[in-house]
Design goal:
Length: about 600
């Protein structure tokens, strides 16, 4: 678990600043080194210097562009952040295919195009209170919201039991794997702005979450039952708002929390780590005097003591209207309307493995002498504003935007705690692609909510489903180019096989040449490789029926003979704690899907 040890003193390096991140892959959370973007503008979280200049970053995914600070993010002339000017006239609509490329070119390159778009946006906003960009919703009192967070039909907002169960089960598998490698796991979801400030939505918009059916609420309910550690930031912001001191914690014209909100989130996360230390989840020690070192990547050294971190209670921010909001840039690319930001002059008390050019860097690694906690943080742009605080207060902090989440970096006790921070609207990214780690084996009844003997018994009692009820593919290596932990298998099964109203867990059953049967658990993830084929065959319901897993190469190498089948085991409990076959649960097993080296 987390062993908090001191780090040797490090030489001073320049603070965290952020420049325009520029255009990145619009796929958002793609594989390999395509990092996490959150579908909203990027918020600079750089350590302030003097006046506390904040950086910005670009955004990918849904086309939200730019988030500023004192440095403007600029305007990208793509169609992602611009409104439609109007319907094509009759002549354009009747053009031949040969003339269409010319029409497309001139429609995007005529003079003053950007200025006309800006004028259109300004007129609609000022005169009618309407948004000229379908991705932005004009709220009350000058507030802007990202439209996708308000649409109940957007996948990120859908709250089906199966969707929540898949995400919760995946987080539980993350936690189990990390625990086996000596690391604690902490899940932190940034609430959508509309859920924190619903009173500023337009009068015709429903208030999100009033029926208790938010996907985030469902996920947190399930992971709470599964024993996965998490922080409920929705409750945090509700408590902060009850103070009623007139302080905003999110930007009015940006998708993100501001630096004031980020500081409160930082304090809450550090308090949770402190609680873990007090409850012996962390062996707590603190920094002691140590000679300075010129090695920026030096590891912490042990010393007994208490958990230590700075809350920055005495740090008074400079409050200024100097923030270039991402939603503002989407709505009006030439707008000079700025948002309020809290600029903290955070002292620089850390050392970076390499210079931090931008808080949107794919990987950032720092060390400090405050304590010895080694934290691996999977994050999106909401963590940009957290970096300035964490860098001073974690013995080692590794921030990464890589997806699939590189859990294997925690192997061998390399980190004490792994934190996954992601914005609410992108919760489904958690089940976009499986990490390249071996599938956990169902072997110890005490470690499983579904005891191993029940799973093995279910194999013999299960009804068999035909091979054509599953799409099954095998590959020798992960698609992200990382070293493979073993043979890779993924696919999708017919939604008709789901247990109605209950969670269905997915167990690969592997039988060796000697007749030995081993049972593993798969991630409930539909890989992109088979997404189109699965939806074409079974419709949109197939998205909740994917599976993905790796078999350990040490046990199932290229010279081993084995057969793979799939066991689907339903559970009858809404809290995800029922047994295989219990109540409305049922077990079904496939015909042999894969045979190796025979």
């Amino acid at each position: 678990m987390i062993a908090i040890v001191p780090v040797v003193s490090m030489p001073f390096v320049s603070g965290v600043t952020a420049r325009d991140a520029g255009a990145e892959d619009e796929a958002g959370a793609a594989e390999a080194d395509v990092g996490i973007s959150d579908g909203g503008g990027e918020q600079g979280g750089g350590t302030s210097d003097g006046g506390g200049e904040q950086g910005n970053g670009g955004v990918q995914g849904d086309g939200v562009q730019g988030g500023g600070g004192e440095q403007s993010g600029g305007v990208s002339e793509t169609d992602a952040g611009e409104p439609d000017v109007g319907e094509p006239d009759d002549d354009t609509a009747n053009e031949s295919d040969e003339d269409q490329p010319k029409a497309d070119y001139f429609s995007t390159h005529f003079g003053l195009r950007t200025q006309l778009i800006a004028l259109d946006a300004e007129l609609k906003s000022r005169l009618f209170g309407e948004s000229s960009n379908q991705k932005v919703v004009e709220g009350r009192d000058g507030w802007l919201f990202l439209a996708e967070t308000l649409d109940p039909d957007t996948p990120g907002n859908q709250a089906s039991d199966r969707a929540a169960a898949r995400i919760a089960r995946t987080l539980w598998l993350f936690s189990e794997y990390l625990e086996q490698n000596g690391a604690d796991f902490l899940f932190v979801a940034a609430p959508n702005k509309a859920g924190v400030y619903p009173e500023y939505l337009p009068y015709y918009m429903p208030r999100p979450g009033l029926d208790g059916a938010r996907l985030l609420d469902r996920v947190q309910l399930r992971i709470d039952a599964l024993g996965v550690r998490y922080i409920d930031l929705s409750a945090l912001f509700q408590q902060l708002r009850e103070k009623d001191d007139g302080t905003y914690y999110y930007h009015q014209r940006d998708t993100h929390w501001n630096n004031r909100g980020a500081l409160e989130v930082y304090r809450t996360i550090m308090a949770e780590l402190e609680s873990m230390a007090a409850n012996a989840d962390i062996e707590s020690v603190t920094a002691s005097a140590a000679p300075e070192s010129t090695a920026a990547s030096a590891e912490p050294e042990s010393a007994p003591g208490a958990f230590a971190y700075e809350r920055y209670e005495s740090l008074v921010p400079r409050v200024a209207v100097e923030w270039d909001g991402d939603l503002e840039d989407m709505l009006n690319p030439l707008s000079e309307r700025l948002d309020t930001q809290f600029f903290y002059d955070v002292p620089k008390e850390y050392s970076a493995r390499k210079p931090i050019v931008n808080t949107e860097d794919m990987n950032i690694e720092t060390t400090s002498k405050k304590n010895g906690v080694r934290a691996l943080i999977f994050r999106d742009s909401f963590a940009n504003a957290l970096i300035q605080f964490f860098t001073n207060n974690l013995g080692k902090a590794s921030f990464t935007r890589s997806m699939p989440f590189p859990l294997s970096r925690a192997e061998g006790g390399a980190y004490d705690v792994v934190i996954l921070e992601i914005v609410e609207r992108n919760l489904r990214w958690i089940v976009d692609a499986a990490p390249a780690i071996p599938a956990p084996e169902i072997s110890e009844p005490e470690s499983e909510r579904v005891p191993a003997e029940q799973v093995l018994a279910a194999i013999h009692e299960a009804g068999q489903f035909p091979a054509d009820a599953v799409i099954f593919e095998a590959a020798e290596a992960p698609t992200d180019g990382r070293p493979s932990p073993g043979a890779r298998f993924y696919g999708c099964f017919d939604p008709a096989l789901l247990t109605v109203g209950a969670e269905t867990r997915i167990y690969p059953v592997v039988e060796g040449a000697n007749g030995e049967v081993r049972v593993f658990e798969a991630f409930p993830i539909l890989e992109k490789n088979v997404l189109d084929a699965a939806i074409k065959r079974w419709g949109a319901a197939a998205e909740d029926c994917g599976f993905s897993f790796y078999l350990d190469s040490e046990r199932y190498g290229e010279h081993e003979a084995y057969t793979v089948r799939l066991l689907l085991a339903g559970q009858g409990s809404e809290s995800a704690s029922g047994g295989v076959g219990a109540e409305s649960g049922a077990a079904r097993i496939s015909e042999p899907l894969f045979t190796a080296n025979q």
